[in-house]
Amino acid sequence: xxxxxxxxxxxxxxxxxxxxxxxxxxxxxxxxxxxxxxxxxxxxxxxxxxxxxxxxxxxxxxxxxxxxxxxxxxxxxxxxxxxxxxxxxxxxxxxxxxxxxxxxxxxxxxxxxxxxxxxxxxxxxxxxxxxxxxxxxxxxxxxxxxxxxxxxxxxxxxxxxxxxxxxxxxxxxxxxxxxxxxxxxxxxxxxxxxxxxxxxxxxxxxxxxxxxxxxxxxxxxxxxxxxxxxxxxxxxxxxxxxxxxxxxxxxxxxxxxxxxxxxxxxxxxxxxxxxxxxxxxxx
Length: 283
Prior knowledge:
Blueprint: E1 6-13, H1 18-28, E2 32-41, E3 46-54, H2 59-72, E4 77-82, E5 87-93, H3 98-108, E6 114-121, H4 127-133, E7 137-139, H5 147-160, E8 165-168, H6 177-183, E9 187-191, H7 203-210, E10 214-221, E11 231-238, H8 245-268, E12 272-275, E13 278-281
Parallel strand pairs: 5-6, 5-8, 6-7, 8-9
Antiparallel strand pairs: 1-3, 1-4, 2-3, 9-10, 10-11, 12-13
Helix pairs in contact: 3-8
């Protein structure tokens, strides 16, 4: 059985004694820290910390008490969760299926600290596969339908399944700012380039034309600006003059799967703090 721990993510203006005060609060209650990490942005004078500990008493009560302490006494923005809480996740997809299959198999292998609640797609191409995996599938086509109506339907689906995270497995639609605001949950996208290079469509074709020697993949939080949300994780692979566009796409797909999965895992494990369109990742 998984050991129950409390995870706290804190950030705010730097001040003396923050680490000591947080650890002392935990120690004084007879609890035991498993992991602790911190970072300071010297340019912005912002302090970040992730601390995980085994509580001595009731976990929910202790989590609430720490949050109140950190916000009132330390003046820090604070998120506190239990590691045993599994977030419900909605998977958005179109027709491209490599990230779709890979991420589902990782969830079903218990690699992810979350639960895939539903699949939403603007095409029926992966409906049969979704049924095989035993995950509810919703077809929300945009053909001859205004975007606002389709997104309203999608928002109702998210609400129905109490979704806490949306992940885009090569979902070939741009989410509107209205959708993002009303969803009220983080959205993770996988982009098939090493952003900010080759943003937009057909990045592998762009990379081939430019003659670059590496290609990459980027997982980022989605916001109202296309491909400009806070970056979570990136990776690259070498290419050379012999590689065709097909070679780039093949190599890129492998990158996309691993980068996407790693970013989702980091989020579900509560290892990411977002500020000023950047992230601090406690990996």
